[in-house]
Specification:
The protein has 227 residues and is an alpha+beta fold. The chain has five helices and ten strands; from the N terminus they run ααβαβββββββββαα. Strands 2, 3, 4, 7, 8, 9 and 10 form a seven-stranded antiparallel β-sheet that branches.
Length: 227
């Protein structure tokens, strides 16, 4: 019986060729969208600055109630004391923030978050965190690459300013790292007049309930321990 065994090497060569072509295509795409290549193209076009949209981040806890946030996570008033902006993946600018805690309104052990992305160890990006400090890494920030100012926007509007105080709902993780428990809806700027300003959309339970119960005032939130 005739068996076309010659087809097997041919098919193998075809598969290897397609695999190699796919790898080249993927590498070409990565090179095209990398921060370096975008800055180089902008420079060749005579531009001195560009603004890029960062990756979409998912925060599973955005829909939780204020009571749940207080029971499962920590609410702290903290200030940014150090930052470091760098290229994380080839096509993403990241910023590492170190916060110093002024006040822990509530403090709980970290809850396991099955739907959350792993927290990367960024301790090498900043000076070590002491017992009253924590580190957070977010996409976004500004870098000068090949003479071009590249600003990447954080899609959640999260961009912390050094010297400013914030009320944050967080979960502490090992190594001095922390995770935003409810993403941008669990972050508030603390104004000098005691008013809390929502960083994220106010159409979520946490900012809505802080407004209804505490009139967006830090003093009232603090006195009631958030409840």
């Amino acid at each position: 019986m005739f068996r076309p065994t010659y087809l097997i090497p041919g098919l193998l060569l075809l598969v290897l060729g397609l695999t190699a072509a796919l790898k080249v295509s993927q590498q070409t795409w990565k090179d095209k969208v990398s921060i370096q290549s975008r800055a180089s193209r902008a420079k060749s076009e005579g531009k001195t600055s560009i603004t890029l949209r960062g990756p979409i981040a998912e925060y599973p806890g955005m829909g939780m109630s204020l009571d749940t946030a207080l029971q499962k996570h920590s609410a702290v008033v903290a200030e940014v004391i150090e930052t470091n902006t760098y290229i994380g993946d080839a096509d993403v600018i990241n910023t590492a923030y170190k916060f110093r805690i002024f006040e822990a309104i509530t403090q709980n052990n970290a809850e396991v978050c099955d739907g959350c992305a792993p927290v990367r160890d960024i301790s090498a990006k900043l000076h070590p965190a002491s017992s009253n400090e924590f580190l957070i890494e977010l996409s976004g920030g500004t870098l000068t690459v090949d003479g071009v100012k590249v600003h990447m926007l954080n899609t959640g509007g999260l961009e912390f300013e050094p010297g400013k105080k914030y009320l944050l709902f967080i979960s502490f993780t090992p190594g001095g790292m922390a995770r935003l428990a409810a993403g941008p809806v669990g972050v508030f700027r603390v104004r000098d007049d005691d008013i809390l300003e929502s960083v994220g959309s106010s159409d979520y339970p946490i900012p809505n309930e802080i407004a209804a119960r505490h009139s967006m005032k830090l003093t009232r939130f603090r006195q009631s321990k958030g409840s």
